[in-house]
Amino acid sequence: MIEKGVTPDAWSYNAIQAYYHCDHCEVNRALRLLSRMEKDNYKPDRHTYNMVLKLLIRIGRFDRETEIWESMGKRGFYPSVSTYSVMIHSLCKKKHKLE
Predict the structure, then answer these.
(1) Are 77 and 49 in contact (CB under 8 A)?
(2) What is the DSSP letter of 18?
(3) What is the pLDDT of residue 22?
(4) Separation of alpha carbons 12 and 57, rounded Å
(5) Closest by Cα among 16, 85, 74 to 48
(6) Among 2, 18, 34, 40, which has the minimal tally of Cβ within 10 Å of its Cβ?
């Protein structure tokens, strides 16, 4: 797309995130794409964050999940009901974190 002069939009980034990075558990690439979106002035939306958070939960990277969660407000994103649901699911998967 870029070689043809077409700038990706949030939908394009989310498609790459979903069908390549998250489906293939490419954590570092998923996080780099998240940073790239911001660099290119496309704010990640609830779909972007939910995909990345679910990926981090799936592979057990609760430390990175918490880091992403805490950085969302700094980036101007405030979680939706679906994002809270992802986090509740995560807390249920962690031992002794349900409280």
Answers:
(1) yes
(2) I
(3) 86
(4) 23
(5) 16
(6) 2
Query: Would residue 4 count as lying in a domain?
Result: no
99 assigned to some structural domain: no
What domain range is 22 assigned to?
10-93
Number of independent structural domains in the chain: 1
pLDDT digits over 14-66, tens only? 999 988 888 888 899 999 999 888 888 888 889 999 999 999 988 888 889 88
The one-letter amino acid code at 20 reads: Y
Q: For the chain, how long is the longest CA-to-CA vector?
A: 52
Distances (CA, A) of 14 to 10, 52, 94, 97: 6, 10, 27, 30
